[in-house]
Amino acid sequence: MKKSIMAMSSLLLIGGAASAQKVAFEEYNLDNGLHVILHQDKSAPVIITSVMYHVGAKDESPDRTGFAHFFEHLLFEGTENIKRGEWFKIVTANGGNNNANTTDDRTYYYEVFPSNNTELGLWMESERMMHPVINQIGVDTQNEVVKEEKRRSYDNRPYGQLMQEVKKNMFKVHPYRWTTIGSMDHLDAATLDEFKAFNKKFYVPNNAVLVVAGNLDVDQTKKWIQQYFGAIPKGAPVVRQKFEEAPITQPIKAVFEDPNVQLPMVIAAYRTPSMKTRDARVLDMIATILSDGKSSRMYKKIVEEKKIALELATYNSSEEDYGVYTFLALPMQGHTVDEIMKEADEEIVKIQTTLITEKEFEKLKNIYENQYVNSNSSVEGVASNLATFYMLYGDVNLVNTEIDIYRSITREEIREVAKKYLNPNQRLILDYVPAKDKAQN
């Protein structure tokens, strides 16, 4: 939750907006297990039809990584009633736009249409779920698309391998140890039958949530949902294996050489708990205090005052099972990563031993009030939040109440959670450096 700091004079205004911004919704289940959430917002003539499937990179086999992300692309190829190459043409011809994204935990598809095309959006998502065409030409086409994405976003991008290297060192048994884009060798080796089996297992109504949000007629929308989704067969229950990582009790050291970079980077990463925990929210706040914005503690000291780093950042990336709290920095010429880590560790010790000031605490609360308002400020954001809170947190009403958790966090909790998770013996130190042959040139 990284946000720009607002003036203290706006705090009451934001607090009032947050209190008034309650998101109304209705939820129910179809007989086939599809969970439905409806949110009516008549402020603009738009409608969002979205489906989130509870499948991500963590649901893949170690020798077949990248499947969930691959399906993010593959399920736009076409259906029994939407010819190959026609999906995007239909959407744009009807004044809409659409997209999809994949994480370790879930895959999310959505369309934004003028509200008079609600039925069209529902029909298209039902087609994706019930009648996808998975054939070799689609697999071969999307294989090339994904390979190009990997080259552009990972292989040939400066620091593009960063999270891949962090994850593989932080997780030894959990599937979080690989990236969502996965291995191209695994995708090349997969058979058409394997892709079909993956679809049959995960892209089923009882493993999904449908959110319809915007300027909708509730009764008519329910009729269309029953008409288009009600006949889709229920899939077999998805049974997930649980993976538990042993605690990190000794420092992990790693080095990665990247031919795409000229400057070294130091990364310190700590394994943290599930996004569903209170501690994860406290760690969000700690990351904000330490490095969100130029007035944050680490930025002021390490970048502005001591001038030993060009840039730095801290963030807590929480997921359904675990999270990773990451600090990274680029040393200024003439300075070392050891210098930076010494200063960074001093700031962590301060937050572990001394309560943050009341002024810092008020500023922190202001940031999170602002984040709450922003996250629900558009119907697209509300739709995504409703799906996420249902699917990954098991509580849709967190769309309204999660801010109360942040409001209730105390300065004492911030100190204790920092003590619990941010210790030198519990972390990875990754030296991310230029490749030797490049460094010599």
Task: Write a brief structural summary.
This protein is α+β, with helices and mostly antiparallel strands and 441 residues long. The chain has helices at residues 11-20, 67-74, 87-93, 118-130, 136-155, 162-170, 184-189, 192-202, 218-229, 278-291, 297-305, 337-353, 358-375, 379-393, 398-408, 411-421, 436-440; strands at 26-29, 35-40, 46-53, 97-102, 107-114, 208-214, 252-258, 265-273, 309-318, 322-331, 427-434.
End-to-end Cα distance, whole Å, is: 40 Å
| Widest sheet, order of strands | 1-2-6-3-5-4
Q: How would you name the CATH homologous superfamily of the largest domain?
A: Metalloenzyme, LuxS/M16 peptidase-like
Domain unit count:
2
Helix content: 40-55%
The low-pLDDT segments are 1-20
Largest sheet: 6 strands, mixed
In DSSP terms (H or I, runs of 4 or more residues), the helix count works out at 17
- Protein structure class: alpha+beta
- Using only C-alpha atoms, the radius of gyration works out to 23 Å
Mean pLDDT: 93
Question: What is the CATH-assigned architecture of the largest domain?
Answer: 2-Layer Sandwich
N-to-C series of helices and strands: HEEEHHEEHHHHHEHEEHHEEHHHHHEH
GO molecular function, one term: metallopeptidase activity
Keywords: Hydrolase, Metalloprotease, Protease, Signal, Zinc
Family: Belongs to the peptidase M16 family.
Protein name: Peptidase M16
